[in-house]
Design goal:
This protein is an alpha+beta fold. The chain has nine helices and four strands, in the order ααααααβββααβα. The N and C termini lie far apart (87 Å).
């Protein structure tokens, strides 16, 4: 009938209109997504340059702008995907939705990487503030400030860790065929696991730091013995400790740093302790100066702590050694 013919004609015109419109729309979306993604990558590169000169504030802003551009690209892709899904549910594969999915994954991963970068920048900024721990001037609020720095550091690292893990999962589901040939190698070279490993080390460091200085709020007192070892006089742990220091942390901040000659301390020893036989031609009595006799550092450190307790009259929580060569290596870095 005429009505049926009209219905078929209208359906055909509508189908033609939809395919034509979405073809043009799809091209526009592609161009827009590319533009926004390129801007996002440019901001990531600028963030890298800012970090090189320790400009944390600018780097954080760059990461935020990258996130915004990736978000815009994601919104465009999501709208396109929803439109295609609702209209052409049975022909998705033919319409290239595997590429669309890969594009979405890339954009979403970009957002996560930008967020992770911003969190890492905040972590490095917090780390740079931990120097307050070694400021020996007494301030009432310093303990609270240190606690805040460490908490911010842990939060930022945790956030980065989660974002990188999600980004890694998304990128693992990206088809190389969906990428331009000139970008495929760069994609293969993207090693998120390296960053995850670095964050893992950083988390371990923060845990160690907090344990080392004691919790900032009511953390009590931590004391450490530092042996300044002269590596021109050979000893199993790296040199003869002619000078030592006692470092004191209270509520997470440095409150004391005393340096003295090891012979002054050994002169306080009331008992005569016979040294190991190979040391007897050097000295008739054993003291802290020669206690680093064992090649196993933990055994030498324990023996040093025993002598220190006898000579100083109080105990320390650990032993640290330093040598001129170590300082030289640090300066090289």
């Amino acid at each position: 009938s005429n009505k049926s013919l009209l219905a078929y004609a209208l359906t055909g015109l509508l189908a033609y209109f939809i395919f034509t419109s979405f073809g043009q729309y799809g091209t526009g979306v592609k161009d827009e997504v590319l533009r926004e993604s390129n801007l996002a990558v440019a901001n990531l590169e600028q963030a890298n340059e800012s970090l090189k000169v320790l400009d944390f504030e600018s780097a954080s802003d760059n990461f935020a702008e990258a996130y915004e551009e990736f978000s815009n690209a994601g919104d465009s892709l999501n709208f396109m995907g929803a439109s295609l899904t609702s209209l052409f549910a049975e022909s998705l594969d033919k319409l290239g939705t595997s590429k669309l999915k890969s594009a979405k994954n890339l954009v979403e991963a970009g957002k996560l990487l930008a967020e992770a970068g911003r969190s890492m920048t905040e972590a490095v900024s917090s780390l740079s503030e931990t120097g307050i721990i070694l400021d020996i001037r007494i301030e009432d609020q310093k303990g609270a400030a240190i606690g805040s720095i460490l908490n911010n550091l842990k939060k930022s690292l945790s956030s980065s860790e989660k974002k990188l893990s999600k980004a890694s999962a998304l990128l693992s589901d990206v088809s190389l065929d969906a990428l331009p040939e000139d970008k495929r190698q760069k994609f293969k070279d993207l090693n998120i696991s390296k960053f995850q490993g670095l964050i893992g080390y950083a988390v371990e460091y923060v845990d160690f730091l907090e344990s080392f200085i004691g919790p900032p709020a009511g953390g009590g007192i931590k004391k450490y013995l530092v042996l300044f070892q002269n590596d021109s006089e050979l000893r199993p742990t790296g040199g003869f400790p002619g000078t030592y220091a006692v470092v004191t942390f209270e509520d997470g901040r440095l409150t004391g740093f005393v340096v003295d000659d090891v012979y002054n301390l050994d002169g306080q020893l009331k008992e005569n302790i016979v040294p190991p036989k190979p040391l007897q031609h050097i000295t008739p009595n054993w003291g802290m100066r020669d206690a680093n006799w064992f090649i196993d550092f933990s055994v030498s450190a324990q023996k040093v702590m025993e002598f220190f307790s006898k000579e100083a009259g109080y105990e320390v929580d650990g032993v640290i050694t330093m040598s001129p060569r170590m300082i030289s290596d640090i300066l090289k870095v």
